[in-house]
C-alpha cells in the first residue's frame, strides 16, 4: 500500500486532511488464534485482538460455549470447537485453556508451527517446567522477544511481583523476611463456569478469604519468580473474594533493611520508563485500573513501628494486566511490534 | 404457673393455648434515649430499642435530620433536636454523637441522672480518658455491670481484639511480635453524611485502602486494650473500603511462640460460653454475620513458613456487634438483664 | 395470672421481673416439614419456622444439597433426602419443590394425613386445578382456614394482585381496560441452581427484561384471580431482572372509569385493617420492604393525560410476602393462630 | 507533514512497516473547551475529547471541583474556574453546565465566536426555545451540520425517541394512542453532587420510581420532538432508579394501528444505515451498551391481547449515547468529520 502506493491511501496533493485518519495500514497482518476463548480472560483477549492493528483473529475455540460469539464494536467472532481449528493457519496462538489441559495444546500448536502465549498456569515457573520465558515484561523482557512459547503470568503474581521486585532488586528486603500479602480479587478471577457460590445472590454484599493457609497455587509461581531475581523472603499470601466483577488489589507488608526517606523511590526508579506501570502517591483503587492494562503501585512507611517496614499497594485489572492485556503485550514483544500496541492503557 | 412458680406452662383450665404467646410482660420498662440517632449506627440502635422487651425508647435526637423517622415494624420514632430532649426522663442514654462532640453530652446526661453507653471514640481507652469501663464484654465483663458510663468499642477494635485476646492471654504471641492486620469494612462505617466519595457511582465496583500508614484513630484504642491484657505486640493496621453496605472482615497474621496442633483451640477455649462469639472451621464471610450481633472467628496455620504464624479471621456486622448491638449488650449488663435480650443473634 | 386469667402480668410474689420475658410457652407445638428446602424460598421458610413460636420444624428435604444446613441464630436444621422424610410425622407440610414436581408430593403429603401449603405454581388458579384455595389472605381469607391444601401465590401475582384488587372491586377499572404492568425482581426469584447467566459477573451492573411478549407463566394465575373478583381487564406484563438479591417492584398503569380525588383512597379503604399491607404517599422502594413480609403500595394520578389513569406501585420482598412469609401467614390461618405470628413485619 | 513530506513520517523505502501505524496525522486539530466538566457527563466528555483524533481539549472548567483532574491513559486535563477560560480560544465549546445556568454561557461562547454543543436542557425543544437544532442525528441530521448551537438531547429522550420515531414516522401508532413508558437509569444520571440519597449504602440493593405522576422535565422535550415528526400520542413516563452506575433501559408499550408480521421491521428499515443503532432480536441488556455510544433496540408483539400493541425496548449508556458520546457525534457532524470519529461503539 503506502510503500507501493497502490492502495487506497495516497498522499498526493489535493487530499482532504480531515479524512486522513481513516487510512488503515493493513500491512503484514499476523493471523492469530485463541484456544479456550469462552472464559472471561479468553473473551477479553478476543475483544482486544479484534481491535488490534496488526493481529488478525483467525479463530477462537471453546467447548461448552461453542457457537457463542464475542463482539467488539461491529466485529464479532464465533467460537468453534477446538478440533475444528486449523492451528497451522495461525502464526501465534494464545491458549486460555484451563490449568492442566493447556500444556497438551501448546505442544500441538508449536508442532503446527505456531508460536504460543500460554495464559494457563501449566508452563509458569514453579510448576516443574524449565526454560519457558515468563511473560512479565517489566521484570525481564530479555527472553520474550525470541521465544516460541511464553508463559503468561497469573493475575495475583502480576500484581504482587511488580510490587516486590524493585524492593528485592535494590536490596531493600531483609534476608529471610516474612512478607505478609493480602489480596482481593473480583469474581471474574474465578471464571464463568456456573457455580452456586458465584451466583449474584451469593456474592452480592459478601466478602471472604479463600484458599487460606498459604496454599494458593500461585505461591509456587511467586516464589520461583522471587528466587529468580535473587530474593530470599518468605511469603504469607491470603486471597479474598470481592463483590466486584473485575480488579485485584494487593496490600503487602514488607520488612525492610532500613527506613526509606521516600517510600516511592524504589518504584519510581524501577519503572521510570514503563508505559504500563503507574507509581502514585495515593493508595490505588480498583476504579483507577479496571478496563486498563496497567499496574498502579503506591507505598507508604507505616508509623509507630519499631522496625523498618514498607506497606505497598498494587492494583491491576485481573483480566487485562493480569491476563489478556499482558498476553497481547507479550505477543507484541514476540513479534517486534510496539509493546503497547492494541493494549488499553 | 408464673405466680405459683410451677415453671412450665400447662394448657389446663379454659385457656386457649394458641393465644398464650401473646401475653406481654410489660413490667418495669426502662426509659432510654438516643443522642445522635440519625447516623447508621444510631438508626440501627433505635430499631433494636423499639423491639427490646425491657427498654422503652423515650426520645431520639438528631441535628440535620430532625423530623425524620426511624421505623421498626409498626412502631416508629421521630428525631427531635437535642435541646428538646429531657435527659432526666431516661434511666439510660446512648450517645451515638460524632467523635469529639460526645463527651460533653455524656457529662450532661450523667448530670441529669442517667447512665450512659457512649458509642463515640471520646471515652475509649487510648484517648486520654481513664477509668471508663470498656464495653467489650467478651474480654472483660467485670466493670460494666456497675458502671455509670461505658465506652462502647469501635467496630474495627471489636473485630480485631476478639481475634487477638485469646492468643495474648494464653501467652501464644511472641514478645514484641509484629502483627499485620488487614481489615475491610462496608460503607456504613463512614456514616451517612453526604460525601462525593461515598456516592454509589464512586463506590460500586471499587475497593481501596484508606487511612494507610498505620494512622487510623482506632489504633490507640487497640493498643491500649492489648496492653491492658498484658500484650506486648506491634500492630500494623490497614483498613480498606468494601463496596457493600455493612460488615467488617479482619485478616490477621500473628507470629506465635510455637506451632499449634489445633489453631482453633485458643478461641474455642476462650469463647466456650459466649453466646455471641462463633468459632468456626471455615474462614468467615460477611454474609455469615450481617444483621446479627455476633463475631465469627476462624484460624488456620499457614503452611510453608519457617516460623510459627497464625492466620486469624474475624467477621462482624459493623453496625451490630461493632456498634448498636454491642451497645444494647452492654446496656443489658448494666441493668441486670439477660445479656442477649433484644440483641439479634 | 395466666391460669387465673387475670390477663395482665404482675410482678408480685418473689419473682424477678427482669427474667419474666424468658418463660417460654412451649405448649401444643405443631410439627411441620418442608419439602424442597434448599432453594432461596425454602431456606427462608426454614429460617422463619425455626423461630416460629408454635410450629416446630420436624424435617426439611433437599436433593442436590442434602446434608447442607440452614441456620437461624443458634438453631439449625440439616436437609435430608425426600425419601428419608416421614411425611406422617408432620401436621403441616410446606412444599417448595420446583414447579411441575410439587403436585405429586402434595398428594403424598395429604395421603399421609398432613395439611399442605404448596409454594409451587402447580395448584394455583389458571393451572387447570380447581377448588384449591388461593393463599392471598388480603384478597380472600374465607377458604384458607378450613383448607387441607392451600396454593401459595407467586411473587409477581402477590405484588400485582394486591395493587389491582381494590381498584377492580370498587368498580374503578374500565371494562376491557388495557393494564400495562412492568415489574422488576431481584435474582433470588430465579432460584439458586447454578446458571451462568446468574453469576455475579453477569448480573452486576446489568438490567434487562425477560420472558417478554406477555408469556410469563404467572399471567394465567393473575388472569384467573382477576376474573375471580369480577375483573374484566387485559394485562400486558413485562418482568425485568434487577441486580439486587431480593425484592420486587411492580409499576402499573391502569385506565380508570373516572379520575380520583385521592388516588390512595381505594387502597386505604381496602387495607385499613390489614397488618401486612402498607399504603403510603411516596412511591415504595425495595429497601422499605426487604426482610419484611409486607406489601407496600402507593398510587398517583399522572398529569397531562387526556383520560383517567392511575399509576400504582407495589413493592414486596419476593422471598417473604412473595413466598415464605406468605406461606407462614397462610399456615397460621389454617391452624387458627394469629395471622402474623412468626411473620417478620 | 505527509503532504509536504517534511515530517517525521516518510513513506520512503526501507521503512519498517511494523512502525507505520504510529504515523500520527495531527493536522488541522480543532481546539475545543468543556464548561461544567466535573460532572459525570463532563468527565466522560473530556475523556472522549482527549482521545479524539481531531479535537484538541484546550480547557475544561469546573466550580467546586476546580483543580481536579480527569485522565485518559497518559493524558490528563485539570479543571479551571470558568472565569479563567478563554472562550475565544476554542472553535467549539461543549456546555455540560447544570440546567438553568447553561444558556447564559452558551450566549457568551457564541459571542466569543465559538460554536456550541449544549448538553443541558436549556435549549432543548419544549423549553421555550425555538430554532435550535436538536442533536439526535438518527432522527434528523439536516440542521446539525450548519448549526452554530446544537441542543444535545437528554438521556431518557434519546432512548425513548429512538424507540418511537420509526413507529410514528411509518404511521403505525394509532392517533391519540396512550403510550406507557417505564424507564430505569443508573445513578450517574443524578450527577455527582454529594447527596445522602445517592450514597452507596442507600442505593445498594434498592430500586424505586421517582418523579412519578408524569412530571419529569424530560416530558416536554419528548412531546415536542414527537410532535415535530408528526406524532399524535399521549405519553405516560415513569423513571426509576437502578443500583448500577450507568445505563438506561426503557420499556415502551405502544398501541399500534395494526399487528406487525415482523415487530423488528420498522426499526430495521429506519436504522439500516445507522452505525450507532443496533436492532436486535433479544431484549437488550445494560451490559450490551454500557461504555458504548450506541442505542440497542428490540421489539416484540405481546401475545394474548385483544388489540394491536408493540412492546419496544431501548437501551443506552446514559453518559455516552445519552450525553457525552452523542455530543461528540454532533460535534463531528458540525465540523464535517466522520460522524463516529472518537465515539466508542
Q: In percent, how helical is the residue content of chain A?
A: 10-25%
Q: Quaternary arrangement of the chains shown?
A: homotetramer
Q: How big a fraction of the residues of chain A is strand?
A: 15-25%
Q: What does the main sheet of chain A amount to?
A: 7 strands, mixed
Supply the number of helical segments of chain A. 8
Residue ranges of chain A: pLDDT <50 for 5 or more in a row?
1-27
End-to-end separation of chain A in angstroms reads 29 Å
Structural class of chain A: alpha/beta
The coarse silhouette of chain A is: globular
Radius of gyration of chain A: 21 Å
Order of strands across the main sheet of chain A: 9-10-8-11-14-13-12
Strand runs of chain A, count: 14
Within CATH, the superfamily of the largest domain in chain A carries the name Dihydrodipicolinate Reductase, domain 2
Q: Under CATH, the topology of the largest domain in chain A is which? A: Dihydrodipicolinate Reductase, domain 2
- The CATH architecture term of the largest domain in chain A is 2-Layer Sandwich
Please indicate the count of domains of chain A: 2
> Mean pLDDT of chain A, rounded to whole units?
91
Biggest interchain interface, per-side counts = A-B, 49 and 49 residues
SSE series of chain A: EHEEEEHEEHEHEHEEHEHEEH
How would you portray this structure in words?
Chain A is of the alpha/beta class. Chain A folds into 2 domains: about 15-150 and about 325-335, Rossmann fold (3-Layer(aba) Sandwich); about 155-315, 2-Layer Sandwich (Dihydrodipicolinate Reductase, domain 2), CATH 3.30.360. Helices cover about 20% and strands about 20% of the residues of chain A. Chain A is built from 8 helices and 14 strands. Chain A has helices at about 40-50, 100-110, 155-170, 200-205, 220-230, 265-270, 285-290, 325-335; strands at about 30-35, 55-60, 70, 75-80, 90-95, 115-120, 150, 175-185, 210, 235-240, 250-255, 275-280, 295-300, 310-315. In chain A, the strands form 3 sheets. Chain A has a 7-stranded mixed β-sheet. Chain A starts with about 30 loop residues before the first strand and ends in an 11-residue tail after the last helix. The interface between B and D is medium-sized, with 21 and 21 residues.
Amino acid at each position: 500500500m503506502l510503500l507501493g502506493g497502490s492502495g487506497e491511501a495516497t498522499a498526493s496533493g489535493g487530499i482532504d486532511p480531515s479524512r486522513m485518519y481513516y487510512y488503515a495500514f493493513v500491512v503484514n497482518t499476523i493471523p492469530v488464534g485463541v484456544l479456550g476463548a469462552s472464559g472471561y480472560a479468553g473473551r477479553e483477549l478476543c475483544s482486544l485482538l479484534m481491535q488490534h492493528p496488526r493481529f488478525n483473529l483467525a479463530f477462537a475455540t471453546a467447548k461448552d460455549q461453542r457457537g457463542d460469539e464475542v463482539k467488539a464494536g461491529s466485529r464479532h467472532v464465533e467460537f468453534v470447537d477446538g478440533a475444528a481449528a486449523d492451528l497451522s493457519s495461525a502464526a501465534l496462538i494464545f491458549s486460555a485453556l484451563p490449568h492442566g489441559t493447556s500444556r497438551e495444546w501448546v505442544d500441538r500448536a508449536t508442532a503446527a508451527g505456531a508460536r504460543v502465549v500460554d495464559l494457563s498456569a501449566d508452563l509458569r515457573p514453579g510448576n516443574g517446567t524449565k526454560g519457558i520465558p515468563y511473560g512479565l515484561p517489566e521484570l525481564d523482557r530479555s527472553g520474550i522477544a525470541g521465544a516460541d512459547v511464553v508463559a503468561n503470568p497469573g493475575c495475583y503474581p502480576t500484581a504482587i511481583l511488580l510490587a516486590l521486585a524493585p524492593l528485592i532488586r535494590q536490596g531493600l528486603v531483609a534476608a529471610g523476611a516474612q512478607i505478609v500479602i493480602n489480596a482481593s480479587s473480583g469474581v471474574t478471577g474465578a471464571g464463568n463456569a456456573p457455580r452456586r457460590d458465584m451466583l449474584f445472590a451469593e456474592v452480592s454484599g459478601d466478602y471472604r478469604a479463600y484458599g487460606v493457609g498459604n496454599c494458593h497455587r500461585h505461591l509456587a509461581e511467586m516464589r520461583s519468580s522471587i528466587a529468580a531475581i535473587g530474593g530470599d523472603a518468605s511469603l504469607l499470601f491470603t486471597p479474598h473474594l470481592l463483590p466486584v466483577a473485575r480488579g485485584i488489589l494487593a496490600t503487602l507488608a514488607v520488612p525492610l533493611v532500613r527506613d526509606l526517606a521516600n517510600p516511592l523511590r524504589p518504584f519510581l526508579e524501577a519503572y521510570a520508563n514503563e508505559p504500563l506501570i503507574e507509581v502514585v502517591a495515593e493508595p490505588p483503587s480498583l476504579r483507577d485500573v479496571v478496563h486498563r492494562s496497567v499496574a498502579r503501585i503506591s507505598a507508604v512507611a507505616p508509623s509507630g513501628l519499631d522496625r523498618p517496614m514498607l506497606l505497598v499497594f498494587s492494583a491491576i485489572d485481573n483480566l487485562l494486566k493480569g491476563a489478556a492485556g499482558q498476553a497481547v503485550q507479550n505477543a507484541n514483544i514476540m513479534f517486534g511490534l510496539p509493546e503497547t500496541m492494541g493494549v488499553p492503557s
